[in-house]
User: Fold these one by one.
Assistant:
Number 1:
Amino acid sequence: MRVIIAGGGTGGHIIPGLAIARALQAKYSAEILFIGTARGLETKLIPQAGYELKLVTVGALKGVSMAKRARTMLDLPRSIFAAGKIIGEFKADVVVGVGGYASGPAMMAAILRGVPTLAFEMNAVPGLANRLVAKFVSASAVHFEDTKKYFRNPTVTGVPVRKEFLQQPEKHQRERPTILVTGGSQGARALNRAFREAAPELLKRVPGLRIVHQTGERDLAETKAAYGHAGVDAEVSAFVADMPAAFGRADLLMCRAGASTVAEVAAAGKSAIFVPFPFATDDHQKRNAEALTTKGAGLMIVESELTPERVANEVSSLITNRKRLNEIGAAAKALSRPGAAEEMAEMVAGLTQRRNR
């Protein structure tokens, strides 16, 4: 079985794709090829994971000028042609679209060539790439029941996560309390600013607190300087390569609420304070967070209320209460779908068998 996984841009698209790839290899010895663009994290994460990556050129459609959007639309046939050439040369049996820049052209090319397609949508409301192909794909895998209405042949699978998130070590109570702060692979400016300003007060309330902070590239220098000026000893990096290990060290996370992040928190059974990105399409990050917080499986601070004082209060009250941390983590774990990647691998195999028949 030869499978192409298309998409990328952010870790939220790439990491589920890698989980699907591993499940396909483990169960079906599938040959895997990724299609992405030179603009996203796929150029780093996919080769690191040992997979081949082919690139197509795709312009942006969101958050750009009308002129740029028009140019992207004019270039789209070229992108579809380039993706189609890759699909043909690889002799793909199925193309899986995980969202992001390269997903749309690759899925369109597969549909035009008659190659079976599986669309994966992790958010409550589909992103642009999936909206373009939603009614033409062979099948689809979604995270939320309400998302099924957008797609052809949908199945609720949950979000695939790496198995390392499911196999978290038990943290010894005598270890220093640790908080992991992450705004995702690209960082989150509001979250970075609020937490670094809250850190001095937090350390007064929780002596010995270990802070592990992933800032994204653009806020790295400013955050390091702010911590240094305040005398805060924190582990600060632009990107955490081994996120499952960082989860394992953490007692509490403070993070955005992208679907991939929420799924990883649940899989790892961790306590988290979610700060949804307020400008996400249809406010889907808030809806992602509510899927946990309404069931006692996390806390949420909306960005308009994200002050250093609120951060210090929420973090200090939670991280010093081991019983509550454990209760929230257990509630999150109960909501996880650990077999999502394997279920999607079975869907891919089914599409391959149907095509061969």
Number 2:
Amino acid sequence: MALPESRQLDFDEIPVIDIGPLCGGTDAAETIAAIDRACRDVGFFYVIGHGFDSGLVDRLRDAAGEFFGLPDAEKRRLGLDPSMRGYLPIYYRSRISDDFSGTSHQEGFWIGADFGADIRHPLEAPNRWPARPAGLRAGMLDYLAAIEELAAVLGQSFADALGQDGWFYASRFARPTSRLKLSHYPPQHNPERVDNIGVVPHTDSGAFTILWQDGNGGLEVRSKTGEWVGAPPIGDSFVVNIGDIVQYWSNGRYSSTPHRVINRRGVDRYSIPYFVNPGAGETIAALDGSDSFQPFSYGAYQVRKWRDYFPVDGSGKD
């Protein structure tokens, strides 16, 4: 039996927030309050009024289509390395928890910040690039620079809502382990099992994610009642979701919400997520000073998570 199609969300279920006041440096108290409510009640929200150059999106989407159209053997020569940079092969296996693993019907290409010769942690290795298409490298680096500016605005807004100082984002994300990823989902007709879809149900292990999705839809979010609901594309918007680290920082005030992708539309789906992660050397502890969980090293935690979620060097993983 096929998985049931999700109903479409009313937009007041996943809020749409105009962050123009945040980006413009004007009084943003109401905007921060709206973000705070969205993080508490849903864990997902759309942002508009962000001022992001749509030309960067179009350019990178075109380059992604060219890259994923290359022969499989050519792409696999750049198989993911231990720093999570390179090509993520299609039909990879993920271990999400002790009792759930699955096969995801997507492929991806990952890069992160380049620290040159100043490598202080295995996650800070240099990026690796394909020989073609010619515009991919410049397109990704230009997009990365612009999306990081948006990440700084959003990251500090979470900190402001949680009563932190104005240097919260700048200090904890000075050497980010963030990753920019191109994603391609071939059409998948009539999927029958939740462990065999575009992306199997999961939460994001980092701080938060900023997602551009094309017009085909497919992103689904699990509601508080356990219902899977569609998060349809909205023009000129990004989808933002809270990851596990912000849930830890907020001591559970903010929700890292499970989500998945099913590409039912009969055409190729593309998306561009930016996974915003703190520096590898950061110690993660509750910001309210409570001892509800044992503080931990972010770098070691993220390495473990990525080893469970993704294959390294193109090899399959259960």
Number 3:
Amino acid sequence: MDAEYDVVVVGAGPGGSTAARYAAMGGAKTLLIEKRQEIGTHVRCGEGLARGLLDQAKIPIDKVWISAEMDGARIISPGGFSFDVDEAKAGNEVGYVIERDLFDRALAKLAGEAGADIEVKTSATEIIKENGKIVGLKLICKGEPVTVKTKIIIGADGYESQVGRWAGIDTTIQPSDIMTCVQYRLTNIELDPKYTEFYAGSIAPGGYIWVFPKNDNTANVGIGLGAHIVKHGGEPKEYLDRWIANNPKMRNAKQLDMVAGGCSINAPLDSVVCDQVMLVGDAARMIDPMTGGGIAHACLSGMEAGKVAADAIKKGDYSKEFFQTYEKAWRGELEEKLFRNWMAKEKAQHLSDETFDKLISLLAKVGLDNISVINILKAIKEYHPELVKEFEDLL
């Protein structure tokens, strides 16, 4: 590892690796660090990925990291009403279920091929400032303290991001904007291998249960509950275990692994940059508030941040003002959708099982040419206007 870089990217998930790749492609001397000893391990993720992302971020498709290709998604109400969303209607929001460890390593490989240096088992411990200006990072690299000078830091260190906090970027969110999650990989279950499934209602207060097929009899089966509803740490697992036990399709299920953690489901932040620092992906709270999906957003924000970082190095301007180019880019791609989905999430958290049944049966009956939160709200307004009064200004 050299002692000086133009750009240091903290975190080698999809956002970090993509940011490092584009920064290096733009000519910036770039270092990508990952605190774990192996990129892609211990990932807390349902592993769903939209097809449209791959072309947009110029990520080459490799069947090595694709477990299954989906035809669509199925939304199921407490009373058993279901609404299928096929890929054509979903506008490329339905695509692959992947192997995140292999996908993450593939993205890191692209970053390395672009010229970025990569160090695993390396964690950032402190931002170094001189006269109020960031001049570097303190790291622990394979057990040894290291100091690296840098002009720009890209924080891609996930939901628990420390880079943002150290830099003074306000990433605080309310408990109602946090989802606490547990996921199993289950095998020997009955499922439709071409559809992801989402179950809503009192079975998962403030959230939902998901089933993401990996093959004909294996799936990621998880639950997310609103953190403001959870009374104790083991409650999400209790809800999930109870649902699995009552589901005849899973009566012979065998558990292969388990992951747990939290994710943000908030409205877009006011700012994700400051002088010399940009945040991407989960660190920037860019997870979709309705679906919990974050891979696509991480890659897209990482691409934009990497491009802006390379341009900043060329022009010698690492200011918050210069980084507004990044703010405009990611907001242009994501902000409106994230905000609308946050508004819809706020409403959905308080719906009764009876109301969920009404909504899903309505959507199944009327159908939609294109599925989005805004189109769903418009359909609901026509038949149940009392449910969308809060969203009048968005319709």
